[in-house]
Amino acid sequence: MYRIINFKQHHNPDEAIRYYHGQWGGPDNFAFFDDAMRHASDSAPHLPRFYVLLKDERIVGCCGLISADFVSRGDLSPWICGIFVDPSERGQQLGSRLIAHAARDAAALGFAAAYINTDHDGYYERYGWQRIEDGYDLFSGQPTRIYRLALADTSQIPTPPISTQPFHTISHN
User: Fold this and answer.
1) Which residue segment(s) compose the domain that 79 sits in?
2) Does residue 82 register a pLDDT over 60?
3) Are 112 and 78 in contact (CB under 8 A)?
4) How many domains does the chain have?
5) Nearest-CA neighbor of 110 among 52, 173, 51, 39?
6) Side-chain half-sphere exposure of 172, counting CA atoms within 13 A
7) Count of Cβ atoms closer than 10 Å to residue 70 Cβ
8) Rounded CA gap, 43 and 24, in Å?
9) CA dist 120 to 116, 145, 168, Å?
């Protein structure tokens, strides 16, 4: 069974931090991820928040909800970031489930929209996201696509069905 939880609710938060860093970090920045995640929110109405996707009790995916991403448009907030699903679990629309979970948390916090920056083209549009413009990546200086999802009506946030296994979402705002 799949479920999404705030990483702080995981029975081993250190494992969740190592997993997230393993997908997005490098050899020299574990301390950054460790510090950011340990200071993340799990119940207060603040950002950042980090989530893990569990299959039974094994971490198979992750994402975050942060106030600013490493892109030039610091005036936009919040950002859904670090979306990752293990290759062995792909093809079940689990990434879109992670995104929908983070978007619902953003809406519950009172945000009118959420943002994603990506190099993917055509994926996010399937789930109601609208490409608004390009920003510039902090590290490469290259353009990156920016997408926006309106959060006014959370019942309209697309959540695709998963036909192969039951799915439970646990939200620890």
Assistant:
1) 2-169
2) yes
3) no
4) 1
5) 173
6) 16
7) 16
8) 24
9) 10, 8, 27
CA distance 78 to 36: 16
Q: CATH number of the domain that 97 lies in?
A: 3.40.630.30
Q: What are phi and psi of 156, to 5 degrees?
A: -90, -5
Q: How many residues would you count in the chain? A: 173
Q: Are residues 158 and 88 in contact, defined by beta-carbon separation less than 8 angstroms?
A: no
Q: How many helices (DSSP H) and strands (DSSP E) are in the chain? A: 3, 8
The two tokens of residue 102 are: 């983070």
pLDDT at residue 4 greater than cutoff 80: yes
What are the pLDDT digits (tens) for 87-107? 999 999 999 999 999 999 999
**Tokens encoding 31:** 């301390």
